[in-house]
Design brief:
Elements (H helix, E strand, L loop, with lengths): L1 H15 L12 H104 L6 H6 L4 H121 L39 E3 L2 E3 L4 E3 L1 E5 L6 E3 L4 E9 L3 E10 L2 E13 L6 E2 L4 E5 L9 E8 L9 E2 L8
Antiparallel strand pairs: 1-4, 2-3, 4-11, 5-10, 6-7, 6-9, 7-8, 8-10, 8-11, 11-12
């Protein structure tokens, strides 16, 4: 935000250079044409800024639309994550139930195994009987050994019963083995499937969580961009306001030049010499509070305030910070600040970085200069006001981005710009 306000401040500085006090010398047609060109340039700049404001608003609306879409995506992802979590709980419950069923099955399998082992013992007994008889006794011999037909029928019925029992034992043995194998296979497959489903759901949950994190980061990024775009738009709106003020001031200045030009022509026709009226500015060597002001020196500029130089012009802190002016320390309860030269105030306001700040434009021997008075406790002059060299314009303070009470004073040979490429060392122009 500070950078945006500094940008607006830069524009203010650059635009303010066109506001100059009425010339003491004769007004030329070229002066009037230059002022008209300046007005046209300001109109063009204002139109460009308005277009940029519209573009910024469209960008903000686009960012908001994207945020709504991302918010919708986030809502869907949250629903999907909740559903997946529910499925995971259900599958985990099914796995637990399957594990319990497996434990029950193990008991059933143990019982089946016990039956199988008992039948194995019976079958082994049959085999031992056959081995002990040497294989000589057969069911046929049992039948032929009958003493009567009734005995034959009884023996045949007994043999049939034994044979059926043996067959039943074998069938039950095979059925139990098949049942055991089937149950083991079914539960194993079910458990494996549930484990696979659970793993798949957990993987899906992780993917959804990752997508949600990405969407949240995207939302944060969109909100940050919207905030930056709002700052940009605010800076543009401030720039537009500054241009509008400048345009009105230039229009007034143009009217003054045209009026002065007509007065000069009328005076010339009457054989008189035209003298420009006083602009109403007053020079003061004492602050209204009674505090001392620096003596007004000869030359183009005078010292803006009493006090020692606490920070000079140029790079500081090992060449990492460029200081475009000088700092004058506050060594009294009230320290007045005066205009360094005759000029016109083109910006007087509160800046987040400069604090209470005044920008003054000067024209000295045809050269434009700009002076800046920052971190003031109070400002006594407003925009468009003409000031005289040595006139009190404010009081030294500690406002804005300041580490202690002082005056930050800048001198620019030309206009003020964001890069401060026109900044010069005030000590080369003023005897401190």
């Amino acid at each position: 935000m500070k950078k945006k306000r500094m940008l607006a401040l830069a524009v203010a500085g650059a635009l303010g250079l066109g506001i100059l006090p009425p010339a003491a010398n004769a007004v030329s047609t070229r002066d009037i044409e230059q002022k008209r060109d300046e007005m046209n340039s300001l109109r063009s700049k204002r139109s460009d800024v308005e277009q940029k404001i519209n573009e910024a608003q469209k960008t903000i609306e686009s960012l908001r639309s994207q945020q709504r879409q991302v918010a919708n995506d986030i809502q869907k992802l949250n629903v999907a994550i909740d559903e997946t979590s529910g499925k995971i709980r259900n599958v985990s419950k099914d796995i637990d139930e399957t594990e319990q069923a497996i434990e029950t099955l193990k008991q059933e399998i143990a019982e089946i195994q016990e039956r199988i082992e008992k039948r194995n013992e019976i079958l082994k007994g049959r085999m031992r009987s056959l081995q002990e008889s040497g294989g000589a006794i057969s069911y046929l011999q049992v039948l032929l050994g009958a003493q009567s037909f009734s005995d034959f029928i009884d023996r045949m019925s007994a043999v049939t019963t034994i044979m059926e029992a043996d067959q039943q034992i074998i069938r039950e043995q095979e059925a139990d083995k098949a049942l055991k194998e089937k149950k083991e296979t079914e539960l194993t497959e079910k458990r494996n499937k549930l484990q696979a489903d659970l793993q798949e759901l957990k993987q899906l949950q992780a993917e959804l969580a990752g997508q949600l994190e990405q969407k949240n980061r995207l939302m944060a990024d969109l909100k940050q961009k919207e905030e930056e775009e709002h700052d940009h738009k605010m800076a543009l709106e401030e720039e537009k306001e500054l241009i509008a003020k400048q345009e009105a001031a230039v229009k007034e200045q143009l009217a003054e030049l045209e009026r002065q030009k007509r007065a000069e022509e009328e005076a010339k026709q009457k054989g008189r010499t035209y003298t420009a009226p006083n602009d109403g500015g007053s020079s003061s060597e004492e602050a209204p509070s009674g505090g001392s002001t620096p003596p007004v020196s000869s030359g183009a500029f005078t010292r803006p305030a009493n006090g020692p130089i606490t920070s000079g012009f140029g790079y500081r802190f090992g060449g990492t910070d460029f200081h475009p002016g000088v700092d004058i320390g506050k060594r009294a309860p009230v320290v007045p600040v005066v205009a360094a030269a005759d000029g016109i105030v083109f910006r007087s306001y509160y800046s987040s970085s400069y604090g209470n700040v005044i920008f003054v434009s000067h024209v000295i021997n045809g050269q434009t200069y700009t002076t800046v008075y920052a971190h003031l406790e109070a400002r006594l002059v407003g925009e468009g006001q003409h000031v005289r060299k040595g006139q009190v314009i404010g009081y030294m303070g500690n406002t804005g981005n300041s580490t202690g009470p002082h005056l930050h004073f800048e001198l620019h040979r030309g206009g003020w710009n964001p890069g401060k490429t026109n900044a010069v060392d005030p000590r080369n122009y003023i005897a401190f």
